[in-house]
Structures are given as structure tokens and as C-alpha cells.
Amino acid sequence: MPQLSHRMGHAKPSAIMAVAEKAKALKAQGRDIISFSIGVPNFLPGEHVYAAAREALAKDSGQYGSNRGADALLDAFIAHMGRLGLAGYTRKHCATGVGAKHLLYNLAEALLDPGDTIAFATPYWTTYVDIADIVGAKTLLLPAPASQDYKITPAQLDAALAQKPKVYLFNNPSNPTGMVYSKDEIAALADVFAKHPDTWIISDDIYNTLVFDGLGYHNIVNFRPELRERTVFVDSLSKTYGMPGWRVGLMAGPEAIAQAITTLNSNHITNLPEVVTAAAVAALAGPQDVPQQKCREFEAKRDVVLAALAAIPGVKCPRPQGAFYVFPDISCAFGKSHGGKLIANDVDFCNLLLEAEGVACVPGSAFGEPSALRISYTCPDAPLKEGLRRIQAFFAALV
Length: 399
Fold this sequence. Notes:
This protein has helices spanning 15-28, 47-58, 71-83, 99-111, 126-135, 154-161, 183-195, 220-223, 255-268, 274-285, 289-310, 346-357, 381-396; strands spanning 34-35, 94-97, 117-122, 138-143, 167-171, 200-204, 231-236, 249-252, 325-326, 337-338, 341-342, 359-360, 362-363, 373-376. Strand 10 and strand 11 form a beta hairpin. It is built from 13 helices and 14 strands. Helices cover 41% and strands 13% of the residues. With 399 residues, the chain is of the alpha/beta class. The strands form four sheets. It has a seven-stranded mixed beta sheet with strand order 2-8-7-6-5-3-4, with helices on both faces. It has a three-stranded antiparallel beta sheet with strand order 9-14-13. It has a two-stranded parallel ribbon with strand order 1-12. The chain folds into two domains: 6-44 and 290-396, Aspartate Aminotransferase, domain 1; 47-285, 3-Layer(aba) Sandwich (Aspartate Aminotransferase, domain 2).
């Protein structure tokens, strides 16, 4: 019998979706399940987005679109970057994809040969390792534990880049930790990147408008403009605009890379659908009141979660300042038991939490940090508070 490709031996299903599917199955059995697992924003875009989609349907051309992305969408993205302080990009520097995940995969195909090295910090978004495995790249991991607020230091970055990885993948604000690098921290890292000219930089910053406490979003090219020649900025509509299912990813970077992504699109997807493009343009160029309001709401929810975790003896959680995640260190529970069942690690903890209290969280080991777990706190206030109460009760029952 013919066999699958060797490549598929490296492909793994999403660990996050595995937790979500287990929670979904329990809910179907009648269990009262509160899910803190999937990173979805849990709100819908403004009515103007739907109006644009309906108008596009009414005027549907039925034709193929641009492999790079429609001019109107590229222009809206360029204007959006301008609002972030990323000026000087043109259409030839940009390309689109079916979500940021698709762009990250295509960037790996475009930049990495088998055996090349891609470096990034731990904790990391699960897909980073999975993509590297599929394309045959080696990974160089930079540990950034809770003791250093889940952030890499300039010295760590300098040591990593001295090994000349082909790509450095930088994520800010962070999934899974919600941590945001300050202006001074970004400036210091930019100085290090500038010392090492042999590495491409992917700046995965899809939570760039979900930043709290007045901290603001900053990018390395703001401080070292010469880095623009080898930095790719990746963005998405999923989180900011409540549009994860619409699947719109956007990138800006060197012209050669944007052209490479366009070429891959011509072989993979051809183009984004016309109706999706119209909705995306409306989201980026239209009123920003919904995402701005949701950012304020997420900041308030962050405070509720941190207060609940602070009341649990032994739990440590650096204060996130963006996205909609917290990433507490729950290693104080390891070696203890709940209902006669031993908790040896983060996976045991999350499995027992789901079974005993009906709360679904993602084990930190899925993100390369087995001492923690991820809580996505975008659900409505009532289930959020109830879920946090259940987590507190779970800890209180440990012996």
C-alpha cells in the first residue's frame, strides 16, 4: 500500500484544539463546561463589516482575484500600519493569506530550507514548532520563564543570534503569556538585531492593538530603520476585529519576500474570496469603536483574572499587558493529589481540572513551558468569574 510522505510524520494536530474537542465532548454529554482554552475573541465585528460583505455579494464578479491581495485591502492595511507607526510600506511590500497561520507557514516555506534554524522564545505559540517540524527546520529555543516575566533579555538574544539562525521569530504581544515588551525593551532588542545581519526577522504581532495600561505597541523597525530590509511584520483580523473565521492574514516586509508569498499564494490559494476582502477592508478602514471597546473590556477582565489567581497560595503569574491570556505558574500543585489522583505535571492538572470542575485550560507544555497553563479570558463575565471560582476550589481541594 502506498505510504504518506515522510513530512507527515512531523505534522501534529493542534494541542489547543485537542483540549477544546475534549471540552466539547464533555459538554455534549451534558456536563457544565467552562472553556478557557481556545484563543478566540468571542465578539463579532461592527455592522459596517457585514454591510460591506452583503454589498460585495450583491455585486459579486465571480472572477479570480489578485494572488497578492486586492489593492483596496493592501491600501487599508498600509494605512493601518501607518497608525501603528510603521510608515513607508507600499503594495509591493505586502501580501495576504488565509489567516496569519497560513502566512507563517508560507514564510517558513519561503525562508527556510531543511536543516536551517529558526529561533524563538519559550513559551511559544504551539504552531511555531509544528511548522518548523513540517518544513524540516531546526529550532533554537530561548527560555523566558516566569522569573523574567516571560520575556527574553538582550543578552539571550545576542547569544542566540551569534549562532546565526536563518530566522528569528518574535511575538509581541505574546500568545500564550499576554506579555508586552515596553518601548525601552523593544529598543534594546532592536540594537541587538542590528548587530547580526545574517538573520531574517519575523515579527508576529497580531495582537498589536490589544495593549493595556497605556503601554503602547512598538516595533523594532521604529528604532532601527535598517532592520526593515530583513523584517517581516505579520498581522491578522482575527483577534482585533472579532473575525477569526473570516481568515484574513496580512504581511509587510522586503519586496522579495512579499513576492515569494504572492507566488506561493498562486499555487496554494489563488486569492482571498471577494466577500472576505470587502469585509476586511471595512474592518481596517471603517470605525474602530468595537475593537477599542473590546480592548478596554479585556483589560478589565485581565484584572479580574489576576485578582483571582493572586488569592491562590503558591500560584505565580506575571502581569500581562496585552492580548487576552494569562499564563500562571501552577507548579505548586505538582506532587499533590485531587480526589486521590496524583498531579505529576501540567497535563495531569488540566485533565483533573476539567474532570473535577468542568474548566478547560491548555497545559503549558503545549507552549514549551510545563510549569504553567494558559487561560483565555474572553468569555462573558458570569462564566469567567464562575470558572475562576472553580479553579480556586480545585486548588483548595489539593492534598
